[in-house]
Every structure is written in C-alpha cells, then in structure tokens.
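Lab meeting, item 3. Inverse folding demo.
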C-alpha cells in the first residue's frame, strides 16, 4: 500500500491519465500567479501511477505537498525549488526586512565631515570626546556645574557643537538625542560668507550665524525644525538656559553652595535630514 494517498489501484492509462489531467488543470490554476513556475503534465502522470491514485486522485493530489514538489519544475532549468537558507547565524549577515526604507535613509541623510566644540567660553568643554559624534562611538558631554546654568568665568554661557557638512547643503530638520531631558536646545546656521569653522567669541554666538530653530527637550529626543529649509555648510547645536541635574553627580567638584546636585547634559547623536 502506498504511503500518503488514499484509494485503490489504477492502471497505467485510461481513468488514471484522466485523473492526472484533472489534477494538472487544478495545479496549473493554483500556480498561475507564480509566473516562473509551470506544472509538468508528464511528471504528474508518472507520479500518479507510482502513487496509485484512483477515484479520489484529484482531491488527494491537491492536498499532497510531496506530489507538488515532485511535479513542479522551474521554467528554463527544471530544477527543484529550494527553501531559503537561514540568516543571522555565525558568519552570516542578517538581511534587512525593510530595504526600501534603509536605502531612502541613506540617500536623504547628511553625513558631516567634521565636528568641533563651541561653548562661548574657551572652546574646550568636552573637546576630548566630541569626534565620537561623527562615527557614533561616543557622546559629547558638558561639564558638571554647581548651579543649573553653564558659566564661563562666572558669567552664564551657552555650550554645544558645530558640524561641518563639507559643502552648502539644504537642511529640513535636525534630530538630536540628549543624555538628560529638560534642557533647551537651539539650532544656528552659518551664512554663505562663512568658509571655515568659526573662532570662539566669549559669551556670544559665532560670527555669521543665525538662530533658525529651538525646542525644549521634554524627552531624550528633540527635533529642531526651521520654518523653511536652510542652506548652509555649518550648523551649531547647543544648550541654552538652565541645564538639568545629572544622574551621576561628581562629588569631587567643590561647590560654595552645594545642594547635592550637579548640572549638565550630553549630546549622544545628531541626524540631519535634507530640506
């Protein structure tokens, strides 16, 4: 008795061939939407004879995965259809589940060529780690202050980073990730006369820059959106106003009026979108 199929014996031709023809028609209809797949009538008949399909041959054939695999051939090659190999194991690269979105992001994104500190003070705040923002290997951090405002020589200041985009580029918005919610962020852009990263002006924004957007960091992600796309090569993103209390206060810092807190923030990532 053959395995997997019900029914009695059938001869090599006659009703058996008719059943095979009926099954062929069913399978051809079922696979019509698969443009590169055809159902081989000869293989179907031979498989029908081997498995001794009888009166219930059409219904049994439709339900049999084994029969489908034996009778379906690829156009042009006649080879079996193989299941895709698994991905994500050792030595394999996992294929993106959304390649269209990834490709679009790669096209529309902007990659800066350089980054530097601009803190309206001495230009040194967090300068040892600022380049990590370019390749995603680190964050830029402010100092920790005794009061809720960055200062330089006792005078409040703003502090942040300037990105060099390499050439004048149209920007639609900038997404900034910060370490601690609560600070105010501003975006300033250089005019066309600025051809190099600007020098520090204590307690002032860089020369030739204009404020184009600002937002409070209610969470750790802030989107700075100008009223209209801005074309520029240099973009300043900095903290202005009060800074939040940091979760890891440095007790080594001596404060004349110590409330037990230290204040500061960090920028962990910046993403530019074209305008």
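The presenter then showed the designed sequence:
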């Amino acid at each position: 008795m053959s395995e997997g199929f019900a029914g009695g014996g059938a001869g090599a031709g006659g009703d058996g061939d008719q059943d095979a023809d009926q099954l062929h028609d069913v399978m051809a209809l079922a696979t019509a939407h698969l443009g590169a797949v055809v159902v081989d009538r000869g293989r179907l008949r031979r498989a029908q004879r081997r498995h001794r399909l009888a009166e219930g041959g059409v219904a049994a054939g439709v339900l049999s995965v084994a029969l489908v695999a034996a009778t379906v051939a690829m156009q042009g090659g006649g080879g079996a259809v193989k299941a895709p190999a698994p991905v994500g194991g050792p030595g394999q690269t996992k294929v993106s589940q959304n390649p269209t979105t990834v490709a679009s992001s790669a096209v529309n994104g902007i990659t800066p060529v350089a980054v530097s500190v601009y803190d309206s003070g001495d230009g040194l705040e967090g300068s040892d780690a600022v380049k990590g923002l370019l390749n995603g290997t680190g964050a830029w951090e402010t100092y920790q202050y005794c009061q809720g405002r960055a200062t330089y020589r006792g005078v409040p200041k703003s502090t942040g980073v300037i990105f060099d985009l390499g050439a004048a580029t149209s920007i639609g918005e900038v997404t900034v990730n910060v370490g601690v919610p609560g600070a105010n962020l501003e975006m300033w852009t250089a005019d066309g006369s600025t051809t190099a990263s600007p020098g520090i002006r204590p307690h002032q924004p860089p020369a030739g820059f204009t404020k184009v957007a600002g937002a409070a960091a209610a969470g750790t992600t802030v989107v700075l959106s100008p009223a209209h796309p801005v074309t520029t090569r240099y973009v300043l993103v900095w903290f202005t106003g009060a800074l939040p209390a940091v979760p890891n206060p440095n007790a080594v810092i001596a404060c004349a009026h110590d409330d037990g807190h230290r204040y500061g923030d960090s920028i962990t990532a910046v993403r530019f979108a074209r305008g």
